[in-house]
Fold:
Amino acid sequence: MTRSAHSPSRLLTPTGGYLRGYDYTLNPFVGCAYGCKYCYVQALPVARFRSERWGSYAETKRIEPEAFLGELRRARRRGGTRIFMSSSTDPYQPAEWRVGATRSILLTMQSEPELVDFLFVQTRSPLVARDAEILVSLRDRILVSVTLETDREDVRRRFAPHAPTVRARIRAIEALRAQGIPVQVAVAPLLPSSPDFPRLVASLADFASIDDWFVGDGANGKRSRALGVEQWYLPEERDAWYRPEQTRTWVELLAERMPRDRIFLHQQGFLPLDVRRPFDERIDPQHA
Structure:
């Protein structure tokens, strides 16, 4: 179900905590039609207190460019405008083809780019490539992060059956990079994949962000277990892939093909570039 909000709402929400380093989050939609089985948002109050099943709705927020410009100007006067888009939805919902909410936001930013210090665009949708001509105009202050948890389509169907295909995401990443837009591949969470996956990520990305069920859920894997993620692994995959050590093992394979200072683990991979620490610095990942 997709419907639009009837009244304008504030788009910028002050942030902190896990997204320290940003001043605001920006969610053009409420809910998410992709409904990935493992999505942490379904366990948050924003989703738990709704009657609809997670994944069955994506409401479009009303976008008024002049009102949004006013928000940006006020935020700029108060301090910085480092923005994470989006923290509780995908900014490129299937409905975005029709409603153009995210495109309107980007066009508004493009009209006065000096109001935006940094924009992090997190998506799993190939639709992001539609806006390449806008994104390229913001490339000095933007990073597009595309989730690619695996290169195996059978695994994608098991864990995120309503999400875009692996091939479609790869084509979108290639299209963005062809325009000179900085792109990160977010292997988050790391899922069972082929031996060739590290080479693929290294060939696709300017940066790579890797996360797992154990550090990434903020509760040593308890939240992931509560969602039942273990049941989606095949028996022959479970011992090899559903373990904390696999992340480091896989990252070392990636580091054979990609500079270590472009690889980031867990929270570090979602922070602004200038405050990140590469994975090979001796960091306790629980406190990264």
About this structure: The chain is about 30% helix and 15% strand. Residues 4-269 form a domain with the pyruvate-formate lyase- activating enzyme fold (CATH 3.80.30.30). The mean pLDDT is 88.
